[in-house]
Amino acid sequence: MDSLPYSERLNRAADSANGEYLVFIDGKIRTSQDWLNNLMDVALKTPNIGCVGGKIVYSELGSSSEKSKLYKIRSIGTEFIQTSDGSFKEVPMGNGLELSSPVCLKSNARASISNEVILIPKNRFLEFNGFDEEYLENFQVSDLCLKLTKKGYKNIYHPNSLLFIAIQNEPDFNKKIYSADSKLFNNNWREFLAKNVLLDKIEGRNIYSIEKFKLGFAVSEVGENASAGDYFTAKEFGESLKSMGWEVKFLAREGSDYWYDASNLDVVVSLLYTFDPRRIRSSTASPIKVAWPRNWFDRWVFFPWFSSYDLVFTPSKKSQEYVRLNSTQDPFLLPLATNPSRFNMNVTKNDKYMSDYCFTGSYWNDPREIIDILDPSELPYRFRLFGKNWDEIAKFKPYFGGFVNYSDIPHVYASTKIVVDDANRATKVYGSVNSRVYDALSSGALVLTNGRQGAEEIFMGMLPVYESKADLNNLLEHFLEKDDEREELIEKLQKFVLKNHTYLNRAEELKHKLIKYVEAK
């Protein structure tokens, strides 16, 4: 019998067994008290059970001197990792984790339990004709477990079934046999795994993998002294994505080819039209490529690589229509938003930012309406202006408060009554609403905007709009003199923003669209 292929030997042994349950256990495994009772308890109590596996721990040194793994996890299941050529390999799930790691302490469904120990009802084993005998030495357990999973049976990892194994040097294996088994496994399961491993990571179920879903934002710069709006947008969006259990990374341009290093990322979201998704490098499978134009939509569609994005989001209906008419892409709506954990009514005021009304944003020697429309010297109210380069505009010099680090912007909004929004030429005509609008309203400051189209689309006419110098002066005078009206409108707008326009809302929208994309693909 020893001369028979491995899968066939196991199947012969199963045929000769008389019990209702089968246990396959590696000869190197040492067991603990009640390990089998614990596995049986799960099998008996779990409806629609497939198979059950336990917690395998490194307990002694065998042929290896790698002491760092002693008394750590060998395996809490099997997970599937996609390589750069699109194929999948199986690896022990949780290898090297501390025994106290939360994921190791929780019983959970697994696409495949550990290869070393498996308990399965005999009738379930026979339902699939046992282990597939086409496999010579590898992937038999994973193949069977995936068949169980695909049919809707539950494979369960049970943390209270404790098993031990010595740390061994990696054994020699027949590369030719492994290559043949891997090819067979991937022919059978690559398409299934490509879809379900990614969905599992997006949803954080830890069935196929305990790896977190990893997203990278392509931005112009990062850091405390950054002044680029794209980074702040990505930063706040990223905080909400992390609250869903995802990992977030920033790919900063800064003149470096590091911009395109997407190693181990599952998705890359570009906020800049100069990012070429065709140049992305990754040691694993190619990530999903997402474009999120927030402005300069004509430039986005101009570049030949725009068609290489898998998904495109735009912040307004008009920008959505423009992209649809001027490219091969069919974008989804995803407006900007706010992070209420940063911008809220609990932020303290700061004397150095105190004003009746203010503006936040930088001047890059590009035409802005606020330069022509606003003249603070004509109004009897305290005005402050924060950002870069406004000291170049003579009439604004007396009110210039300098550049303010992003971390202090909430204090600016907390220290004013009204924020003037100046939607620039790259956003206004497309109805795109600036982040400062959502942030200021979340902070409890009223916003006056020149972006009528965006105000009507997002705020349905609730947000005050100015289109001329007279409009702006009248609105400032009205809302600075009538505190009750201003506060009533702020409360209404703030509730609207916190219900509909937070980055947690956007995170759920992105998650939903990614799930739909993966399912369709």
Structure overview:
The chain has a six-stranded parallel sheet with strand order 11-10-12-13-14-15. Strands 2, 3, 4, 7 and 9 form a five-stranded mixed sheet that branches. A four-stranded parallel sheet has the order 17-16-18-19, sandwiched between helices. The chain has 16 helices and 19 strands. The protein has three domains: 6-203, Alpha-Beta Complex (Spore Coat Polysaccharide Biosynthesis Protein SpsA, Chain A); 214-337; 351-501, Glycogen Phosphorylase B (Rossmann fold, 3-Layer(aba) Sandwich). The chain has 521 residues and is α/β, with parallel strands linked by helices. Helices cover 35% and strands 18% of the residues.
Q: Strands of the biggest beta sheet: in what spatial order?
A: 11-10-12-13-14-15
Give the proportion of residues in helices: 25-40%
Stretches where pLDDT is under 50 for at least 5 consecutive residues are: none
Query: Ends: how far apart?
Result: 45 Å
The CATH topology of the largest domain turns out to be: Spore Coat Polysaccharide Biosynthesis Protein SpsA, Chain A
Number of domain units: 3
Gross geometry: elongated
Average pLDDT, rounded to a whole number, is 93
In percent, how much strand structure appears in the residues?
15-25%
Rg on CA atoms, Å: 29 Å
Number of helices: 16
The CATH class name of the largest domain reads Alpha Beta
> How many strand units?
19
